[in-house]
Amino acid sequence: MPxxxxxxxxxxxxxxxxxxxxxxxxxxxxxFL
Length: 33
What we know:
Order of helices and strands: HH
């Protein structure tokens, strides 16, 4: 389901190369780190 949030989320996942970051919950934690 492509969404504006997913685009940024996917961008982060590409840079981290970590499957865990594909989860939205982990993505939000990245923003707070």
